[in-house]
Hints:
Layout: H1 3-15, E1 23-31, E2 34-36, E3 47-49, E4 53-56, E5 61-66, E6 72-75, E7 78-82, E8 87-92, E9 96-98, H2 106-122, E10 135-138, E11 143-144, E12 150-154, E13 161-167, E14 176-181, E15 184-186, E16 196-203, E17 206-215, H3 218-227, H4 235-248, H5 251-264, H6 269-274
Parallel strand pairs: 11-17
Antiparallel strand pairs: 1-3, 1-5, 2-4, 4-7, 5-6, 6-9, 7-8, 10-12, 12-15, 13-14, 13-16, 16-17
Helix pairs in contact: 1-2, 4-5
Amino acid sequence: MTGLMRTLLAMLxxxxxxxxxxxxxxxxxxxxxxxVDGKERPLLLAELAKGQKLTVGxxxxxxxxxxxxxxxxxxxxxxxxxxxxxxxxxxGAPPVARSTEWRASNKVLTQVxxxxxxxxxxxxxxxxxxxxxxxxxxPTDGSVGTLQPQFRWNAADPKAAAxxxxxxxxxxxxxxxxxxxxxxxxxxxxxxxDTQYAWIVSANGAEIGTATFRTMPNSAILSIDKRRPSDKxxxxxxxxxxxxxxEMGATQEAREAWTRLAQERSDLPELxxxxx
Length: 276
């Protein structure tokens, strides 16, 4: 990154949706024309403070979740006010509330919101490039919240037979080996929790790559599995699960979740920013 780009990014991060001193809630879903205090459309996950006015336009939708309680309000076209523990209707249909088990981390919420704001504002400076060169794709970074990860990689010939080897670093005997047709493989046996692993993929007699990852402790994996929403769950539940993965330290899994959400909601470019 050039010095100019670094300077621009620092300026944008400084001006990105700041953590509000009295923030009590944040946006978990947004569609159509929405304004906060009469200003431009806010970003997904923007924080809201007590007393702020929300305007939801015709055919628009806004979902707001209270950080402390996890209570979420679905707002239809109308005027609303953010209060200490609830959303009040000034005009239009009363907000519909539901209780959830989610409790968002203020630290993670602020970090993600700032990243999205800077990335969305800078998206015109550079076009994202898709890298399909032969390499290992997942897992290659940090911890994973499962004992049966689905390994993925890019290959010069995606249909070529490949061999995957999983082993403990420093040991020659593999923990698991398999021959694969394609560019993905889900472990058929469970790995050990809280353990560092390495994995290698070869195709056509040449090594594609090697990477390491660490399984999370069993308590963390159980907690993640308990909160894992179905594919048909509410958008905001899947959004909060991605935040939860990030908070738990499963950063690459969180990016995978953000990517799926971005593919579903092309109207929210900030989702693509979270996936980077």
